[in-house]
Queue: 2 jobs
Job 1
Amino acid sequence: MSSSSSFDRWRPHPWHGLEVGDDPPSLVQAYIEITPVDTVKYEIDKETGYLRVDRPQRYSSQPPTLYGFVPQTFCGARVDELSPKSSRGDHDPIDICVLSERSISRSEILLDARIIGGLRMIDFDEADDKLVAVLENDDAWGTASDLSDVPEVLIERLRHYFLTYKSVPESQQGDEGPKDIEVDRVYGVDHAQKVLEASMADYDERYGD
């Protein structure tokens, strides 16, 4: 068990009360909202910091990796500048997908993750990047240093998940029709670290003292 010279008497907010990580933009801390066995979409409640049920997945959409966000990040103007096809950031913390050899079936956990790449996703004109990382010291994935070290089929699964996880029957699409979702680019570690740094700067501008 790790020890610390200080602690919070009250539970810190996962987005605002936890640190980005030990060595950003390479090594970060990830807060996990969804696991590969979840058939319900969970999302952090921005007001309380507790995990909220966003929606049950209507179809058999399950994330191929652990999925969550990096604390004290914000998808704002700087992240949007790195995404030529978007018109604004989505104003959420930056999302992260974490590869792990061993099955992790619990959410609301923290882990150390090493960033290796990402997917530039555009969700209804909003920048909604998905960083990809490996669990630090993972026996199988721990030596990966770039997205090129990951089998292409896994990237295809991530693309498919994010392109379809909001799908609803045509009869329930509403007046505007389905959301316009696009994975514009798959990128490696260098650009992924730029995205993380931009999201940290966006957070400091929005929430800093």
Note: The first strand starts at residue 27 and ends at 34.
Job 2
Amino acid sequence: MGYDHAAMGRPARRQVNAKMIDVVFEISGGTLPVAYPYELWSELLKFVPQLEADEHAGVVPLRAAESKEGMLLPKRAKLAIRTKHELADEVSVLAHRLLRVAGIEVQLGACKTRPIQHYPTLHAQLVTGADDEVAFVAEIESALAAMGVEAKLICGRRRTLSDGERSISGYSLVLHDLNAEGSLQVQYAGLGGERRFGCGIFVPYKVISGLE
């Protein structure tokens, strides 16, 4: 379902957000539960409690093969934590740490920082918002307008992240036709809530066709 989000005479308003950076780690381990983000965030805070105070900080969703058993980490998998530049050194202490995520041992390896670059098309796995798709799109358009960002958007399927006790719902979302400034704004600030659990975090997206 496509929507054209255009600036039609609205006043331009710019919301300046602190620059963010991705701290990227090699990661290896077994099969994680689909709702791993809850346990992973708790484990990360044990080593880097400063992340709790960074409202835009979060974990970029892992690229893993999902099955009935859970999320199987592929070879050369990466864990990326998006945070302020000034917290990058604190986050880097996670290098070579052994984490326990939902009872599964996960080994982190070497880390490096990855500057966030602008791309015209971005994707987020799950953006929180209204249950109704039309209302959700209206919320996203309003949020983009408040940031002074112009983009076209494609709302994907509704998704739910649940561990049986906690539940977060929203839609997958693609933003395209972004200019350089708008692309960076969206990646720095994200959209919706629950960034710590990977929600509303945007990454480059190369293919629009075939979006679920």
Note: The domain at 2-11+117-204 is CATH 3.30.70.1210 (Alpha-Beta Plaits).
